[in-house]
């Protein structure tokens, strides 16, 4: 019994020892697991805090004009994306780009620095501060097109105007496909367009000056643009002959961007329909002879003198500098009305893009522009007169401008504005300021200008001209601005 008892005690001791080792092992494993969980929680919180800091940095950079008010919109945006006031401490400051040097709110340039600290309970580790730092630089980009009322007539999916139908025919484009191309809202990334054109290689940065100095034809440009736009682009065959393939022009003829100073165009894109519109006019400018012939009651000869321009602009320091300038298309329309030969140069105008004001929500963002309408030049060829022969009466009939026009709202689908000067306001008064080149005849015509019958006839002529230009879609000297892409938020780029 004694021996058996000793054996029982020994077994019991061994069992207790094994249990003690197992207990210690379990406790160690539990503590380790809790520590791992705590560390895992810290790691997860680190990722979450960094995500919130990144979002806050991009939002603050997009709303950098709100710096003196403490970036309130960016802080609110961070709260809606996980910022917890009970555990988090966030600071948003302007900084010298790429450094930790902070700037006062009234000296904000283009960069913001966010520091976010969250106190995280980490099991046995106690409370662990998790820190995230994010920097973002704002490079808002807008793009659009300047033109006449043809933009409204042809870029909204409606039927083509007579002038655009004639241009499409001259370029040997299928009119139904051409209409779909002009109406396309697909975006064409300018860097990728440059790659397709062979201006840049894969991995290069967008060099706007090089791109603008590239010589193309409309066919080559549209083929490249359709390739970049991908599945969103309409299906249309670009012909390999005719003006679309033989008229060369620099991209700067149809695309305007200020490449001086510190402009950055990362992510810049243009609307495919606008690119097609401008390049079609550039190709049509090479149509020889009397230009494009139309029959709209009167036989009209239309010559394209210059194409419209797209513009790409990025925000600069708020020093009032113009960040892009673009012009409308300009055409010469000639017709015979009775015994009079009339030639009118119409459609001239330009737009200065002055500032991009990015705000949150982005629907409150705006673009400030100046519009200028140039004079309508009219030349009226008179019948032959005894001793004086055939003479031409020349007149410039008015101009106008509108400054600091605010185009408010995110352009979805587009934001547009216009300035208009109607031809009848000037052509009807053609004899008020006329010049034949013969002093004696000028005196006689100045007297005739008071003749009510002659004045009524010229007023009628002016009204007829207005009707002709309206049918063509030129609306005389209307300057029409379309901003089709305003990218404030997505171009606030994280830089650390």
What does this protein structure show overall?
With about 500 residues, the protein is an alpha+beta fold. About 35% of the residues lie in helices and about 30% in strands. The protein has 13 helices and 24 strands. Strands 11-12-15-16-19-20 form a 6-stranded antiparallel β-sheet. A 5-stranded antiparallel β-sheet has the order 2-1-3-4-24, covered by helices on one side. Strand 3 and strand 4 (about 125-140) form a beta hairpin. Helix 8 (about 220-230) packs antiparallel against helix 10 (about 270-285). The protein starts with a helix and ends with a strand. The relative contact order is 0.12.
Strand content: 25-35%
Major beta sheet, specifics?
6 strands, antiparallel
Kindly report how far apart the N and C termini lie.
80 Å
User: Quaternary status of these chains?
Assistant: single chain
Query: SS-based structural class?
Result: alpha+beta
Strand order of the largest sheet: 11-12-15-16-19-20
Mean pLDDT rating = 77
Shape: elongated
Q: What is the number of E strands?
A: 24
Low-confidence segments, given as residue ranges, are: 423-438
**Radius of gyration using CA atoms only:** 34 Å
Tell me roughly what share of residues is in helical segments. Answer: 25-40%
> What is the number of helical segments per DSSP (H or I, 4+ residues)?
13
């Amino acid at each position: 019994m004694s021996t058996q008892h000793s054996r029982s005690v020994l077994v019991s001791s061994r069992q207790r020892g094994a249990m003690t080792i197992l207990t210690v092992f379990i406790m160690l494993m539990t503590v380790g697991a809790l520590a791992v969980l705590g560390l895992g929680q810290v790691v997860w919180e680190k990722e979450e805090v960094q995500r919130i800091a990144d979002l806050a940095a991009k939002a603050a950079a997009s709303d950098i004009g709100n710096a003196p008010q403490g970036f309130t919109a960016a802080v609110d945006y961070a709260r809606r994306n996980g910022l917890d006031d009970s555990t988090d401490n966030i600071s948003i400051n302007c900084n010298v780009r790429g450094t930790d040097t902070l700037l006062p709110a009234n000296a904000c340039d283009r960069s913001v620095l966010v520091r976010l600290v969250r106190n995280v309970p980490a099991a046995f580790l106690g409370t662990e501060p998790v820190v995230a730092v994010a920097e973002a630089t704002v490079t808002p980009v807008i793009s659009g097109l300047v033109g006449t009322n043809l933009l409204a007539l042809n870029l909204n999916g409606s039927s083509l105007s007579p002038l655009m139908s004639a241009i499409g025919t001259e370029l040997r484009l299928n009119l139904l496909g051409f209409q779909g191309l002009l109406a396309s809202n697909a975006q064409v990334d300018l860097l990728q367009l440059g790659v397709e054109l062979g201006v840049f290689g894969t991995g290069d940065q967008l060099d706007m000056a090089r791109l603008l100095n590239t010589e193309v034809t409309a066919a080559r440009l549209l083929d490249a643009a359709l390739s970049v736009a991908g599945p969103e682009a309409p299906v249309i065959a670009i012909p390999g002959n005719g003006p679309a393939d033989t008229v060369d022009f620099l991209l700067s003829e149809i695309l305007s961007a200020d490449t001086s100073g510190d402009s950055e165009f990362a992510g810049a894109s243009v609307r495919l329909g606008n690119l097609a519109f401008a390049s079609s006019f550039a190709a049509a400018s090479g149509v020889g002879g009397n230009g494009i012939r139309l029959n709209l009651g009167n036989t009209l000869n239309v010559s394209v003198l210059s194409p419209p321009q797209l513009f790409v602009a990025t925000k600069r320091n708020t020093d009032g500098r113009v960040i892009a300038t673009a012009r409308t298309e300009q055409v010469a329309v000639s017709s015979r009305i009775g015994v009079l030969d009339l030639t009118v140069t119409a459609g001239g105008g330009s737009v200065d893009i002055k500032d991009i004001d990015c705000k949150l929500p982005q629907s409150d963002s705006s673009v400030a522009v100046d519009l200028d309408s140039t004079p309508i030049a009219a030349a009226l060829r008179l019948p032959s007169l005894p001793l004086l022969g055939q003479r031409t009466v020349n007149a410039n009939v008015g101009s106008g401008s509108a400054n600091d026009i605010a185009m408010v709202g995110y352009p979805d689908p587009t934001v547009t504005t216009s300035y208009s000067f109607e031809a009848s306001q000037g052509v009807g008064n053609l004899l008020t300021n006329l010049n034949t080149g013969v002093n004696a005849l000028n005196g006689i015509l100045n007297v005739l200008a008071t003749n009510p019958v002659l004045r009524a006839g010229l007023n009628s002529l002016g009204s007829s001209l207005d009707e002709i230009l309206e049918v063509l879609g030129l609306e005389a000297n209307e300057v029409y601005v379309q901003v089709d892409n305003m990218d404030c938020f997505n171009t606030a780029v994280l830089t650390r």
